[in-house]
Amino acid sequence: MVACPCEVCASADPKDKRLRSSILVQSPTTTIVVDTTPDFRYQMLREKVRRLDAVIFTHPHKDHLAGLDDVRAYNFFQGKAMELYANEMTQESIVREFPYAFADMKYPGIPDLRLVRIDKDPFTVGDITITPIQVWHLKMPVLGFRFGNFTYITDANRIEETEREKIRGSEQIVLNALRHEKHVSHFTLAEAIDEVRQLGVPRAWFTHVSHQLGKHAEIAPTLPPGMELAYDGLSLTTY
Ligand SMILES: [Zn+2]
Ligand SMILES: [Zn+2]
Ligand SMILES: [Zn+2]
Question: Which pTM value belongs to this model?
Fold first, then answer.
């Protein structure tokens, strides 16, 4: 956290260096990113992502959207608009927060964006099929996504039983766990552990971790079998 002197923010352990939450999903032919965080540009540079077919969005909070302008580099190299898969609420925010990209008179060099509406129905990008899962972030509906046997859910503090059914059978899940103390719109670590047990997913990784949770090296050994703290640069394989 900017300006924070706490031991987590001051830690030299690379696993305590947490950029904002996002994932890259890749098949042999298709590359998708989930959310464009304020760190999007640096994350793409760090991972040397040369091609990007689409962005899919969970919700319009700034920590998941603010980096969108930097898709312009992919527009330049790929010579086409970037497809943005988002629900109605997130689409409205994208148009409101990046109005210059949707103006009639476009300034040269601005990002070229093509909005694609999604809702609760599965959709396909290239050869990747994606099933949206609607979860609750206090009162905001947020989309999680299932890709084959892998499910990604960030920014939730409640999942309805009908949506849990869409997650069950996953072999791996990434789920948000903010900190130990109760929070209005995020699962605590204990709540996230309980949610994973209810879902019966054998392998879980916790993300969207606050500095308030503590150091990676101190929290990791306290987690139940099959559950781990995610970290920046973590790579998983799924089918
Ligand atoms: Zn701190
Ligand atoms: Zn949020
Ligand atoms: Zn967030």
Answer: 0.97
